[in-house]
Amino acid sequence: MPDLNAVRQSPDAPSAVVDWAARDHITLTGLRVQAHHGVFDFERENGQAFVADVTVWLDFAAAAAGDELAATIHYGVLAEEVAAAVQRDPVDLIETVVERIAATVLAHPAAQRVRVTLHKPDAPITVPFDDVSVTITRERS
């Protein structure tokens, strides 16, 4: 079975594979944000809770060697940026919001790859459910 955490490094290196599960990463779990996304008018008017989980892969070596915050990604700042990305500019689809979050994370020069899951726990679904979420993985191009 193929390793789903391994992806090709680039189209120029078809045989090179990165084991992302073994790489350095920062994970933010359960960032709760109130926002106004959704296809229904009441979702836009009333808003609802969204919960973001973000994992960003980067190399910690330089930051650790010099104990230098500037050589990594400040996770407190990252959390605020992710929350702002969720809150701004209401859209119909949470798929649009996760792309926005991924772009925000990859704007950090140290970020190599990001996985974003956005939960919409109060989605207007007519059957009992615990959660609905979408997940994407994006890499620096």
Protein architecture, described:
It contains four helices and six strands; from the N terminus they run βββαβαααββ. With about 140 residues, it is α+β, with helices and mostly antiparallel strands. The chain has a four-stranded antiparallel β-sheet with strand order 3-4-5-6. A two-stranded antiparallel sheet has the order 1-2. A hairpin with an 8-residue loop joins strand 1 and strand 2. The longest helix is centred in the middle third of the chain and has 13 residues. The chain is elongated and about 50 Å long. The protein starts with 5 loop residues before the first strand and ends with a strand.
Report the uncertain regions: 1-13
> What's the overall average pLDDT, rounded?
90
Walk across the major sheet and give the strand order.
3-4-5-6
Shape field: elongated
Radius of gyration: 17 Å
Helix and strand content put the structural class at alpha+beta
Please bin the fraction of helical residues. 25-40%
Element order, helices and strands? EEEHEHHHEE
Task: Please tally the β strands and state the result.
Answer: 6
Question: For the report, how would you describe the main beta sheet?
Answer: 4 strands, antiparallel
Distance between the termini: 27 Å
Q: In DSSP terms, counting alpha (H) and pi (I) runs of 4 or more, how many helices?
A: 4
Q: Tell me the strand percentage band.
A: 25-35%
Annotation keywords:
single chain; 141 residues; alpha+beta; four-stranded antiparallel sheet; two-stranded antiparallel sheet; elongated; disordered N terminus
Fold blueprint:
Layout: E1 6-8, E2 17-19, E3 25-35, H1 41-46, E4 48-57, H2 61-66, H3 75-87, H4 94-106, E5 113-119, E6 133-139
Antiparallel strand pairs: 1-2, 3-4, 4-5, 5-6
